[in-house]
Amino acid sequence: MARKVDISVVIVNYKVKEYVSNLLSSIRKAAGEYAVQVFVVDNDSGDDSIFYLQQRHPHVSYIANKDNLGFGKANNQAIKQAKGEFTLIINPDTLVSEDTFSTLISHMRSNPECGAAGCKILNPDGTFAPESKRSVPTIWAALTKLLGLHTIFPKSRLFGQYYLSWLTEDQQAQVPVLSGSFMFWRTDLLQQLGGFDERFFMYGEDIDLCYRVQDTSYNIDYVPSTSIIHYKGESTKKGDLRYIRIFNEAMYLFFDKHQSSRYSALFKAVIFSAIWLKTIFSFVISRLKSISWIAADLVLLNISIILGFLIRFQFSVEIFSDLQSFQFLWVNLLASGIYLLVGALLGLYQHKNDSISTPLKALFFSYLGVAAITFFARNLAFSRLSLLIGFGVSVTLMIGLKLVQINARRNQTNAKGQIKKSKILLVGTRADAKELIPKIHARPDWNVEVLGWVQTDYNFGENALENDDTLERLERQKVTPSTLGSLSQLEDLVKAYHADQVLFSLRTLSYKEMLRAISTLRGVSVQCKLIPDSMDFILGKSKVEYLESLPLVEVELALNKPVNRFIKRGFDLSLAIPCFALLWPLALLAGIKRPKGQRFLEPLAKYKWHNRSLLLLGILYGHYSWVGSILPVQNKLSKHSEEQEGGLKPGLTGLIQLNQGKLQEGEDEEHYQLYYMQNYSLGMDMDILLKSIFQPLDNWE
Hints:
The protein is α/β, with parallel strands linked by helices. The chain has 4 domains: 7-134 and 175-234, Spore Coat Polysaccharide Biosynthesis Protein SpsA, Chain A (Alpha-Beta Complex), CATH 3.90.550.10; 288-408, no CATH class; 422-546, NAD(P)-binding Rossmann-like Domain (Rossmann fold); 558-694, no CATH class.
């Protein structure tokens, strides 16, 4: 006789397979002794989601749709097949705690009038998600939310209706509406209601379903004694016009279905118009937010042109003596138009602030275009020198602006131009840290620093290293994890070490403990990320980062291309010549003092600047480079043995030098060197040099 199913779980996936995999792992742990039936409905993700998940979770029932049917319709496919006493509708970008199922089943069985229940929902930063408990979005409730009155008067039943804000997050109560991200139903009631109304493609279907419970003898309960974490909208594009339109259409559909009978045709037309005006307004606001950084570029460009004009005429006030003097502003308009056009062609609008080279290219072509056009339009050709000065000012200010923008954003792992390393705390066992740290260090494209690991209070020592030989090997490889404290001290450790990210290892840390720890970090400026049991990727709020070495395929290396060789050599000379011009007396003196057969003067610490001047001379001769492999100053290498295999010269700095303290000797160094040669660009050299300025290296000790 087949065992009775306790819980049926329905998950709809759309291009978030890693989140689904992590959710399925948490469901497996939460299941305990309950019989759980799990459905994953894939809404035509267009990737290998089904295969990926089947390999990791073979006991799940999968439904593969050939089209994106929407949230409600996809859920209904599984709801019809649900055999559990209870059915959980849950978003793919969530995690449940070990006690979630037991807490809700106990509550439902103790309260037979409860037809559906929700729990406390936490945001990734540990803050409470107000949508955990909501009311029906009447016109008044929606208006108070839109005007922000619910935040001004949170305890008011009149103004706080939308999120029932007069109820505390830990106060159990009956509520009208649950969040569609987590809805725990009696299966017979859910099937009796016919599941979701399939006219709702996405959004609003959860409100509609909960609203229909009012016509039954059941009620809906908010049960805050257990909690989940929700990453919110990872499978949707909130700024996309299509999704904004779908959301607002859903709101009108709900109004038309349940409340329009109370109002006249004229009032319904007003509501319809208001919803579409809100759609347009929401789209405009989202676009303005996304292009604000382009506006900053344009402001900088125009200021630079005006400054170039002022510098050219030595800030003479006489140039503003009449309106005709302001005709040069046409040059500003022309340059701005070219910048926007070239920026679109170069993909500037897609790359946002993550690129320094792209806006510089757009800047170059803007000035080049203005110079070419003004050559033929004589009435605009005020001064070529003004444009040249303006271009120099623009480049300087643009680089400064981009560096400020990039470094103002925290928690980045691989942004070019990011000077400060992102500081990471690992939470788990020593064995977790021992496995994870080498994986993190093996990513040459990540600019991170692992501060150490935070031990879980209840399993400290259970995964300790078994013998001294293993510990000695790890110490030799420079990956021995440092114990910073216990989980109960996490908030203090984050503040004390100024951590940017906290990575929770879910292999040994319970979901309940993880959720509790995240909740203690409310108000602390830190990003919490999760590492699932498989230890192969990191889940954050906005993206998935794989803990795998980058594929280094033996193809033609970028650095070996003649054009890149030429660019690198030109870059070396352009920096070395002016520097050598300042240090040539030291180079001459060092050359006289240097014993025959030696590259540098010894002792190295005593003759730092003499040796640096000799290094500049070596760059001029082509023996060294600014960015390259490790400079073996201690080995007195001969002239012919200094160039490494593959043609990478020793350098003053490089990827290996920047990360020398965390790399394992041999394999990691070779991996970093090959990555540099495979992905070489002038921008990469500039980025490495910039980081080296703020993270000084000393090879002369």
